[in-house]
What does this fold into?
Amino acid sequence: MNYTLNQLQIFLKIVQTQSITKASEELHLTQPAVSIQLKNFQAQFEIPLTEVVGRKIYITEFGYEIAGSAENIINQVHAINYKTLAYKGQLTGRLKISVVSTGKYVMPYFLADFIHKHPGIELLMDVTNKNRVVETLENNEVDFSLVSILPHTLHTDQLELLQNKLYLIGNFEKKFKKSLNTQEIFQDLPLIFREKGSGTRQIMEQFIQKNNIPVLKKMELTSNEAVKQAVLAGLGYSIMPLIGIRNELHNNELQIIPVKGLPIKTVWSFVWLKGKKHSPAASSLLEYMKKEKSNIVRDKFDWFEKY
It folds into this structure.
């Protein structure tokens, strides 16, 4: 056999995502390149690793066995790299962080300088919805998570990073007077929601319920970016985190619609399981963030404080 480390990594990603398309996206490779590497890798085994039914790929039992071995090999390679860097006196290891989808506009700014100072640290950041983030915490799959709503079902410690503000957002097809009555404005507006399991949707539904707002028209989309594009296109309006629409506000593509009771304010919090024993890399990151968070907020989010 003559398989490569690259082939092992590609096959493992296909197993994890159950999709060649998703694997290619996460690996930043073209779909044909991933397909070719999979074909070359499978050709070295007499027993099939995958099978295609219709247009969907399925992993065979033998394929899962090989994927487990591939993961062990890749982990050992990482361990060798870490040991080499550690021998040189560098901080090494993996950091696993799960982030709610709108947190992708926040978390990178708190990590950038730390990662640059410690090139021996490998960052694995999963951007997903609130339900999945809570699940990764509960299963102890990650070192830290970034949330805007604390998971009250879990015992966690947290470090507050930045205020989260949510406004009613629309494009400029219609002008609105100041301080509109919530009942009045929502009678005619088609509202765009995030999917179930989203923290933004949870906050939005709580606001609607609290104010007894009748929702006559409703649309559901599965990402913050999709909601933003729908609002830009004029499909409707949505209650969205300010953090994700900076450029659109600056370019006068979106407007904040003045509604009583808005903005809704929560806090972006960096959380971890209470009593968790952190690795040296995770402990170092936490100390860095405690020390530098005020400077990062001032330097990177000064625009945010103006709203």
User: Anything to note?
Assistant: The mean pLDDT is 88. The chain is about 45% helix and 20% strand. The longest strand covers residues 156-170.
